[in-house]
Backbone:
């Protein structure tokens, strides 16, 4: 065979380049029957597996906490500028309306003047905030990405650092089954990371573009309810990657074993699934329930079912009011509630929906509670039967009532007179005379 051309190998990407440049044959000067002086097929395969694991870990980190966000970096970008223009003009129009209303009711004096001053100050704050939101979001995203990368690459106390260390010097680093398990878990984690990436990026873009409309509500006099709801959702999306840090305290107990690292990685995936899905209520419960139903319909393995039940617990979707600790808002209800908060910040009354569960959730709740109701009914019947048996036993062992003495007092239950005499009836109460009716005539 002709010798390998190093120029052709350099044109390939890793890890194919390492395979091309590596020595797959035996000793160049030896015979055909001996084993060459290379590392061998097992060591070579483990090296490529380590490269693949490091590549997957790097991609997961880049997807979970990317350095760049799908959001405008400056206020004059083509995507953000129309929203900024609309928000500024809306804030000015709200301020003008407040001034007109205060002028029409100027006879109230100082309260209306204070309202004008508050509206002026909040309008300036809103307009200044509109221009600073894109840059603040970009800086916060870079800070979150840098903190996430530093936290997971600082030492072996983190999950990914422990996996890298255990691939090199773990107790089961040469076990093919353990390596297969950790690679499979990393592939699953990469799929979850892709889902997290899409959810976070699209959510951040939507909330940044909504910023001028939400901040314009401040010009009405400082109503911050809509701003708090908007900021809470945005910050929840920004800091979602740090959910993986919740498994960091358990990494110390798992050092040296790739199998335990796999279990922790699956647990981190389930935790990320739960926090991402339920932190974004518009798509959360339905997608989580669909993923759980898909897994449960395809496998009967108890461990897989336990993982998906932990990541996507059974919940009931509500239309308006809560019915228990396992109820979540439907997508329509969540959008309706957020719209009501925004309209309320602008002073518009929002109609409330009647309180009820959705049809699917009501059926599921009735089926879930049927067993419990049957158990409660059976327990009540058994308690009533035991109480009636104990009462009959007390009556049976009590004996006959002793006869009274001739000159003694007659018990109240005995009739007055002889044993064959019927008790005298009680006299009927005399009827009251009718009250005279008052006359309105003088």
Residues:
């Amino acid at each position: 065979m002709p010798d390998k051309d190093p120029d052709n190998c350099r044109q390939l990407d890793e890890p194919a380049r390492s395979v091309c440049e590596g020595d797959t044959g035996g000793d160049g000067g030896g015979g055909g029957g001996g084993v060459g002086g290379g590392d061998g097929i097992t060591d070579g395969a483990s090296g490529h597996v380590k490269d693949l694991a490091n590549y997957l870990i790097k991609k997961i980190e880049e997807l979970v906490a990317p350095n760049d966000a799908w959001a405008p970096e400056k206020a004059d970008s083509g995507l953000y500028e129309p929203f900024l223009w609309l928000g500024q003009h809306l804030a000015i129009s709200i301020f003008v309306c407040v001034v007109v209303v205060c002028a029409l009711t100027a006879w109230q004096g100082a309260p209306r003047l204070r309202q004008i001053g508050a509206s002026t100050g909040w309008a300036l704050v809103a307009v200044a905030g509109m221009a600073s939101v894109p840059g603040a979001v970009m800086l916060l995203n870079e800070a979150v990405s840098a903190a996430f990368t530093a936290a997971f690459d600082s030492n072996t106390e983190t999950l990914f650092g422990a996996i890298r260390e255990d691939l090199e010097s773990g107790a089961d680093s040469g076990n093919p089954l353990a390596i297969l398990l950790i690679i499979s878990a990393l592939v699953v984690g990469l799929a979850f990371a892709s889902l997290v990436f899409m959810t976070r990026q699209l959510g951040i873009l939507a909330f940044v573009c909504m910023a001028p409309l939400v901040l314009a509500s401040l010009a009405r006099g400082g109503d911050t309810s809509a701003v708090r709801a908007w900021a809470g959702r945005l910050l929840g999306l920004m800091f979602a990657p740090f959910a993986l840090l919740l498994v960091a305290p358990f990494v110390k107990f798992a050092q040296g074993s790739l199998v335990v690292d796999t279990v922790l990685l699956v647990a981190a995936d389930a935790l990320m699934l739960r926090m991402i899905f339920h932190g974004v209520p518009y798509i959360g419960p339905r997608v989580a329930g669909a993923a759980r139903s898909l897994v449960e319909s395809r496998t009967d393995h108890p461990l897989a079912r336990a993982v998906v039940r932990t990541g996507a617990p059974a919940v009931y979707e509500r239309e308006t009011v809560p019915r228990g600790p396992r109820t979540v808002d439907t997508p329509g209800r969540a959008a309706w509630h957020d719209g009501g908060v925004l309209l309320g910040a602008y002073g518009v009354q929002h109609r409330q929906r009647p309180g009820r569960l959705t049809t699917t959730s009501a059926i599921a709740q009735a089926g879930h509670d049927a067993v419990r109701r049957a158990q409660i009914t059976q327990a009540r019947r058994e308690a009533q039967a035991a109480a009636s048996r104990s009462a009959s036993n007390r009556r049976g062992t009590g004996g006959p009532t002793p006869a009274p003495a001739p000159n003694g007092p007659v018990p109240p239950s005995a009739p007055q007179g002889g044993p064959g005499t019927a008790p005298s009836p009680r006299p009927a109460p005399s009827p009251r005379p009718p009250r005279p009716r008052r006359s309105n005539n003088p």
